[in-house]
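Memo to structure team: turn this sequence into structure tokens by end of day. - J.P.
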Amino acid sequence: MTPAPWFKPALLRSLKAGYGRADFLADLAAGLLVGVVALPLSIGLAIASGVSPEQGLYTAIIGGVIVSLLGGSRTQVAGPAGAFVGICAAAVITHGYIGLALATIMAGVMLVAFGALRLGKYIGYIPYPVVIGFTTGIALIIGSTQLDSALGIADPSPAIPNFIGRIAHLFGHGNEIHSSCLLVSVSTLALIIGLRKISLKIPGALIAVLLGTIIVTLIGVSDASLPTIGSKFKEISAQFRLTDWSSALPDGAAWLTKAWDVLPLAFGIGLLVGIESLLCAVVADGMTGDRHDSDTELAAQGIANIASACFMGLPVTGVIARTSTNARAGARSPVSGLIHAGTVLAILLILAPLVKLIPLASLAGVLLSVCWYMAELPLWPRLFRSGGSDMILLVLACLITVFVDLIWAVGLGVVVAFIFLLIRKSSHPEKEEPEAMDVVEGDAEVRLALSGHLHFGRAAEPRAVEARLKRGTLNLTLEFGHALFIDCSYAQALRELAVHARKQGVVVRAVGLQGQAANDFNRFGLREVISL
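Reply from structure team:
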């Protein structure tokens, strides 16, 4: 039997399923909206990463085109992401842009290999509290890079690569705060949050930046009291440039030496791209009801990173803010991602001279709004109420991300989670049950028999069931009679399954809950989405 192909781009899947005028019009509207949303974010993330503004736009264009053409998700939108700000800023300081670009290419090769080896499914083994913890940590890191611009304090020279150092710099220069910068950044942040409450389809970031730029230009505030992109970057180039390797890496020996130096960085970028892009694809699946192909997505992200680094770009990954905007706007295929990239390209070619007028405080407000929504703070009380190992994993992942390194946070988080799991299993060996999920499909009902320890290593099980909910299914019954406990990651997977099923009009109910599994069911608030 011929094995099934592992590389299955979602674009081909969409076109084979039938693509008409109504689909294109939906993708056109979504792509234009995401394009204008991506503009200020791409510029702000590039500056926060220590490179020029246009390099963020190059990344959005290249990443948007390649991932949309080759990726495994219908609505995933790729480009520069906030998760990489800390890594990129530190890499530029330590290795220069050439070192970051080389590490990005190496990471791209790794990602293609991960996809070819079909390793995408293993991303699901990262516990949910670890994901939330490092996401909050990343938000804190990004926020620490923007407070200088938000307050009008001059950037430190040389740049400070660590969180503690940046906070100490703020306190040491508190007397340099400019009220005009503070007013612009706070107004930008407030306007974005306010417009978001009205409608998620309103491009609040772009509107806030445009208003701030127009008002500041009309008033004529000096660059000394309110720095702009033009005062920091004299030229904004609209032309794509190939990365110049020859000056920094003149021969083979220099290449090998540099590659060895940035190998840990490359592994970190590759791992982060894989985690971020597949988590983003899962979010998109939950919003659209589609199912992405994780191995295809990894390979596409790898190719996009290789191309981005060759054209002066930054690391590329799926971006939750843009992807969720794309899905909410009604995108139906990866064509919307291509239109998004075309929109950013058109703006770059036409409006590049005007970009230099944007106040840095406005961009700081935009990125601080990204941090606010990225931090997942509403989830912290729920995870704290769950107590025990979930609370420890959450705090541990956040602290290690902020004060040590993201890769250490994920690695140690997974190891500690396994240790907690082994302890929990060994505490009641007499109650051991086989770890299994049996699916029984009837004419109008799907029954899941869940047994054993329902933990993060099995969290992909409920997601796999979503495809079994065919048209005509009226009931989804979850049988917990042989379940011993439910951890936070598995509970989140059950919540996503229940939400997906209810959107399709399926009634979801749980039966057989008892003992610790019943306590966990209530502790994680599953009663909100699953009936008893």
